Structure formats: structure tokens, C-alpha cells
Amino acid sequence: MIDHQVRVRRSADRLPREEQLAWKLATVATGTHDVDPRAAAMAVNRVIDNAAVATASLPRRPVAVARAQAVAHPAAPGTSGASVFGTGARVSPEWAAWANGTAVRELDFHDTFLAADYSHPGDNIPPLLAVAQHTGRSGADLLRGIVAAYEVHVALVKGICLHAHRIDHVAHLGAATACGLGTLLGLDTETVYQAVQQTVHTTTATRQSRKGEISSWKAFAPAFAGKAAIEAVDRAMRGEGSPSPIYEGEDGFLAWMLDGPDASYTVTLPEPGEPRRAILETYTKEHSAEYQAQAVIDLARRLREKTGPLEGVRDIVLHTSHHTHNVIGSGANDPQKYDPEASRETLDHSVPYILAVALEDGTWHHERSYAPERARRPETVALWRKISTAEDPEWTRRYHDPDPSRRAFGGRAVITLEDGTVIEDELAVADAHPAGARPFDRAGYTAKFRTLAEGIVTPDAQDAFLDAADRLAVLESTGLDTLFPAVDTGAVAACDARLPKGLF
């Protein structure tokens, strides 16, 4: 691996493009050839994972809206177009990426990587799959693109913190997707370089989408980045340039969005010919909630065995990392995180709510645990408002441990009862984490897919999809169609028919 120093430069310096971060990211994309077998197997796992959560989200309103917008943009005559989950439609690839990306993200239930910043690298897959279908690429091409996108995404998340400046994490996603598309299509470094810069320029936004009253834009944001990356690649392939250098420029990304004119970062990228294995550092979710809540849900299930009835609780404090406390905990100072009328998107970013419900129910469900009647239950609200979080420097240190096997995303819960009894326990990582009690393997991903597809995809169609995913490396271009499980399109159409009309 090579450490690349990235800092702001004056325009008068005329920084050579070969020394710019966007160029170095592009060389990772254009230098990717053989795929490491373990990385390829994990990429298949994530294709299965994405299909699982996309299928379960099909009846949800934001997904229906994105789907309706997409089907209004059919593939141009003479082109293949790309599939949209839940329909038989073939649409223009950027719109397929929009609809499918929203479906994948809606339930906050697919993969994650946490380091200096945050990410959901599985968000790269919908735009890559859409372009692969549209351009007639093979399953092997798609795998190469996925592995390359994850490599770039993980490197940026490790090296450049966005959230400290309240910039949304999709800024890194857009660059990674542009690189993945470059690998998929076999583009030259110059074209990918221009596409990366265009995408970063157009997908930089604030984190207000994850603050206060969180709306459905949280699901749309990564889909927007994927759509923008496809459009940027199209323009770059036609010879169009971009704002340059997008990262290092004196009026650029680092200087004005992040640490300022004195900004300096280290981004570590693989050497030419070095295997791309960053995807192996990422992990998925067993529960539909913000990743830092995964271990908290598992911890709550364990604590229930010690607490007995919860009526006698005086207060509960979760001692945890800076991120958990300040983003999804009481340190965010968001009253909405304690509001029983809050949106689902807000509740899945409220660790006090999640801990309260998990303590009461001993389980977690992607729909029932967020139902309005569940959130309004009086005893739940009473318990919920007794829960707070506190930053613990040791948990923050463990969160940022450079060794992935020691990195911790959990916390220590201290329950104080009215009689003064104290019950406490801690959990470093979720059970499904690679270092957890029950790490997800192919069987885990398969079980998750079957659970979420139940009642939506027939058993035979489930089998057909899983077989296709398992054979992804040898699928011909037409075989990519089988990565969209057949669903009851009538039920989906009925859902769509209830939507108000827009422009398209």
C-alpha cells in the first residue's frame, strides 16, 4: 500500500494531474485486473444483501416515488437499458440507479464501513449493476467494478473525515462509484479522473439530511450520488472536463468544505498490481438500524435476562464513542430523538429509542419495531426518556483503533433501578460483525435474503436469484437480469397507483 499526502495547493502551483488525488483514485480503477477470490465472494454476498433489503423496501413510499420517476424514463430505442426492482421495466441506466439505490438504502439495513468517516459501500452496487446491464457487460466485469469501488470508498473513508465539517458521507460515495464504473467499462485514466472530479463537485452536501427531523432524503441521497456518477462518466466519455484539482484546489473541496487552506490528509491506496481487498474490511447489518445501534440491540437482548420487569428502572446510561453519543445519542441534542411522533428515519438514528424497544421486546424487526403504535406505547415512551448516552474516551479510542479486529462500535450500558441496584454489561461489536459472536457468512446473507423476501418473492424465484448470484463471476450479460428477483408486480403497481403525480 502507498500513503498519499493530500493538501491544498495554490492555483499558481499548477499541481500536475499525476499528483492529484482524483488522478490517483482513477489509477486504482484503471489498474484493477484480476479479482482476489475472497473479495469476489464477499462482493457476491453484498449483491445478495442489497437484493434482500431492496425487496423488503418495495412497498415503502420513498421507494415507490423513486420507482415511479424511473419508469417514466424508459430506455432509449436501440439500447438495453437497465432493470428496476419490483417491475418488468427497462429504463435509462441513471434512473435505474436512482430507483434501485433508493430501494437498497431505504431501510438502513445493508452494509457499512466506519473509520475516520462513515459509509455504506453497498450503495455503489446499484449504479454499477445498472450500467453493466445497459452496456452488456458480464458478471465478471461487474465484480471487478464492485471490488474497485469498495477499494476507493474504504480508502477515502479511512483518510478524509467529512462529518467533522458536517458534510454528508455521499461525497466519498460518488467518487468511488465513478471509479467503479471506470473499472467496469475499462475506461482510461484520464476519463475516470474527469468523472471523479465532476461527481465530487456535484454530490457534496451538508449532513442536515441526518440531523433533527430526518426525512426520506436519507434514502434518496446515495441514489442521487449514483445517478450523478453515471451522468459524470457519460460526460467524461464524451470528452468533457471538470473542476480541477477538485480536492487540492485553493477554492476546492478540502480548502472550503473541510479543514481549510492548511488541510493535509493521508489517503492509502494499493500499489499497481496489489490485490484489492478493502471490501473484506466492511460489514453488514443483522438489524435495520444505524450501525452503531447493532451492538446495542444485541446487548439489550443480553441485558433482558438480568433486568427482569422494566417498571423499576430509574435511568439507563449508555457509555459509548463520540460518534454514537453525538450522532445517534443524546449528545446530538435533537429533541426529535425522543419524540414518539418522529419519522422512521429519525427513530433509526435514535439509540435511546432503539435501546428502549430492544430491552422491552428482546428482538428487532425492520417494520414492527418502528410502527407508529409501537413508538407511542406509553411504557415505551416512559422508558425511552430515562435513557441517555455519554461519551467515554476509551470507547472513542476503540472506535478508531487502526486494527480492524480490535475496532469497537458498541458501548457499556448501566441500568440503575429505583432501589439503587445497578445492572451493567457491555458489548464491543454486533454479533454479526466479523469479530462478533456469530459473524455473517454466505449462509447468513442467504437467510437474511429469504427472511426479507418472504411473501414478496416465491420460494422458486428466491432459489433462482440465489443461484444466479452464486454464479455471478460466470454470468453473461443477459444473466445479469436474473439478479432482480421476480416479485408480485401487481402488488407493486397497486402501491404505485396510490402516489400523487409529479412532473414525469
UniProtKB/TrEMBL annotation:
It comes from the Bacteria. Residues 20-265 form the MmgE/PrpD N-terminal domain. It holds the Pfam family MmgE_PrpD_C. InterPro entries: MmgE/PrpD_sf, MmgE/PrpD_sf_1, MmgE/PrpD_sf_2, MmgE_PrpD, MmgE_PrpD_C, MmgE_PrpD_N. Residues 287-471 form the MmgE/PrpD C-terminal domain. Belongs to the PrpD family. This is MmgE/PrpD family protein. It comes from Streptantibioticus parmotrematis.
